[in-house]
Amino acid sequence: MPRYVIRLSYDGGRFNGWQKQPEVNTIQGTVEQAIRTITQEKVTLYGSGRTDTGVHAEQQFAHFDTVIPIDEQFLLHRLQRMLPDDIFVYGIREVAEHFHARFDAKWRQYRYQLLLHPDPFHRQYAWYPGSNLDWESFAECLMLIEGEHDFSGFCRKGDNITHCRCTVLYTKLEQHEDSMVLVYIRANRFLRSMIRTL
Predict the structure, then answer these.
(1) What residues have CB less than 8 Å from 154, skipping those under 6 apart?
(2) Which of the four, 2, 18, 154, 190, has the lowest number of CB atoms within 10 Å?
(3) In tens digits, what is the pLDDT along the chain, a chain of 198 residues?
(4) Distance CA 57, CA 17 (A)
(5) Where does 40-118 have alpha helices with state H?
(6) Residue 85 is a catalytic residue
(7) CA distance 113 to 184
(8) CA–CA distances in Å: residue 46 to residues 35, 106, 117
(9) CA 10: distance to chain centroid?
(10) In 98-168, which ranges are continuous DSSP H helix?
(11) Cα atoms in the 13 Å half-sphere on the side-chain side of 193
């Protein structure tokens, strides 16, 4: 069966996260339904990771299989026209049948956007944590989580996972002139609820 990978981005503001769920609006469910409508096949979309309700993605990958080969450019054009404005597919290409969007991903990265002072023009996409945050200590704490560690204290209990060791490859605290502070955390994997707890 032909396997295809798509690269997409989305504003998750009005979605209940990535993972398809009954009776709620999700990214996976919306994109999967659009692909099914175009291909007339019952495809299943597998994402490189899950996002929570309201979380956005600049670059997410997902794959699906079809019975009949498709014209990638035709599908890309149709998806770009069919999907809502808050989801955009940048590319589609055929990959090897053993490729898996989740298990073949080398790393994932989160970016949090914080504000040094309240700003009504950034309120939808950044958080003002208050004026008492010690930014120097914040940066030091970020450095402490770099490397390989057991993050069992930072994940949701009861998940069926074999181990809680993750390697945080990169962290950065970056201040911009417009009072925006960007926090980057990149790791080989994130446990469920790990990034939110961190």
Answers:
(1) 191, 193, 194, 197, 198
(2) 2
(3) 899 999 999 999 999 999 999 999 999 999 999 999 999 999 999 999 888 888 999 999 999 999 999 999 999 999 999 999 999 999 999 999 999 999 999 999 999 999 999 999 988 899 999 988 898 999 999 999 999 999 988 887 766 678 899 999 999 999 887 789 999 999 999 888 888 888
(4) 10
(5) 72-82
(6) no
(7) 9
(8) 13, 16, 39
(9) 9
(10) 135-144
(11) 9
Neighbours of 186 (CB within 10 A): 17
What the block records as the tokens of 59 is 């670059």
Q: Are the C-beta atoms of residues 166 and 194 closer than 8 Å to each other?
A: yes
What are the tokens at 48? 């490189």
Whether the CB-CB separation of 29 and 44 falls below 8 Å is answered with: no
- Residue 158, burial from CB neighbour count under 10 angstroms (0-12, 13-18, 19+): exposed
CB 182 within 8 A of CB 113: yes
| Residue in the block written with tokens 């404005």 | 85
Considering the candidates 52, 65, 86, 104, report the single residue annotated as catalytic: 52
Give, rounded to a whole angstrom, the gap between the first and last alpha carbons of the chain: 40
CA distance 55 to 53: 6
Is the pTM higher than 0.85? yes
Torsion over CA: 172, 174, 180, 181 (sign) = positive
Non-local (6+) Cβ contacts of 78 within 8 A are: 38
